[in-house]
UniProtKB/TrEMBL annotation:
Stretches assigned to the EAL domain: 24-276
Superkingdom: Bacteria
First and last residues shown, out of full length: 421 to 699 of 699
Name the UniProt record assigns to this protein: Diguanylate cyclase/phosphodiesterase (GGDEF & EAL domains) with PAS/PAC sensor(S)
Length: 279
């Protein structure tokens, strides 16, 4: 059974219910040990402004398991979320991101890191303490840490959530709306909540400027977000045509394979050296 779970044949949603149940349970057991066994790492995807200057990085989780191989975040993050394992895993991510920020600061690389915060983490009352203590441990200014949240996290916006976001924002943390345009929330949170940045989902960036619907949607999103005085990031930018369109239409920050894939820490440092000396 286990032999089937190698990198190439691994399927989480198999049609056979039995097999699916087994693999799910195995996945959960493996995931439970992932932090302690040091199987997790962070990769960093560069974010550049439209003049080509490096202005930030998104931390993206990677899981390398001895049997499963490298597991895609789209496969294990939902499982971590459903089981609550996202809380210890997410804590590891925040701590590692702060450790990395401190290393960058020492090298004079003065850019923020964005970390993804899942809906379950956002509901967790301990998130605030984790974030503050991780920043403090390394003497980091809170504005160096950006928290990416999704619209769906905000659907059942309880009063407690709003005040917790406000507290973190008051001490200087920045919030980004990730995958903007794909959630079920109303837009009113953009004025109610302390949001600094909106990330246009990759699905709207595909085929720019050739897809007329995406062209209209992206132009509207950029003008709305700019009108609110917030920053606009486009994700999934993988061609020069997309980049030029986004630049001409006022998008502030570009993230995607066109500039770089998510990079290991060492590769990110090399990338950063090139892009800070070039500009
Ligand atoms: P996301 O936050 O929207 O991250 C962007 C995803 O798009 C990343 O996938 C990135 O590799 C991919 N991407 C970036 N540029 C391009 C491009 O030009 N073309 C294409 N095709 N893809 C591009 P990744 O790393 O597989 O992560 C997938 C999702 O998993 C993330 O989506 C995020 O929702 C989640 N995730 C990753 N790391 C974490 C984490 O530490 N915590 C939580 N809660 N979720 C995470
Ligand atoms: Mg993200
Ligand atoms: Mg996204
Ligand atoms: Mg996404």
């Amino acid at each position: 059974q286990e032999a089937k779970l190698d990198r190439n044949t691994y399927r989480f949603y198999t049609p056979a219910m039995h097999e699916r149940a087994v693999t799910r349970i195995q996945m959960i057991n493996y995931l439970r040990q992932a932090v302690d066994r040091r199987e997790l790492s962070l990769h960093f995807q560069p974010q550049l402004d439209v003049s080509g200057k490096l202005v930030g990085a998104e931390a993206l989780l990677r899981w390398q398991h001895p049997v499963l191989g490298s597991v895609n975040p789209d496969e294990f993050i939902p499982v971590a979320e459903e089981t609550g394992l996202i809380i210890p895993i997410g804590t590891w991510v925040i701590r590692k991101a702060c450790e990395t920020l401190a290393a960058w600061q020492k090298r004079g690389l003065n850019i923020p890191v964005s970390v993804n915060i899942s809906p379950r983490q956002l509901k967790d009352v301990k998130l605030q303490r984790t974030v503050i203590s991780s920043l403090r441990e390394h003497g980091l200014h809170p504005s160096l840490l950006h928290l990416e949240i999704t619209e769906n996290s905000l659907v059942e916006n309880k009063e407690g959530l709003i005040s917790r976001l406000q507290n973190l924002s008051d001490i200087g943390l920045k919030f980004s709306i990730d995958d903007f345009g794909t959630g079920y929330s109303s837009l009113s949170y953009l004025k109610r909540l302390p949001i600094a940045e909106v990330k246009i989902d990759r699905s709207f960036v595909i085929d720019l400027p050739f897809d007329t619907q995406n062209t209209a949607l992206v132009q509207s999103i950029i003008s709305m977000v700019r009108g609110l005085g917030l920053m606009v990031v486009a994700e999934g930018v993988d061609s020069l045509e997309q980049l030029n369109f986004l630049r001409q239409n006022g998008c502030h920050i570009i993230q995607g394979f066109y500039h770089s894939e998510p990079l290991s820490h060492d590769h990110f440092l090399t990338f950063a050296e090139d892009y800070t000396s070039a500009s």
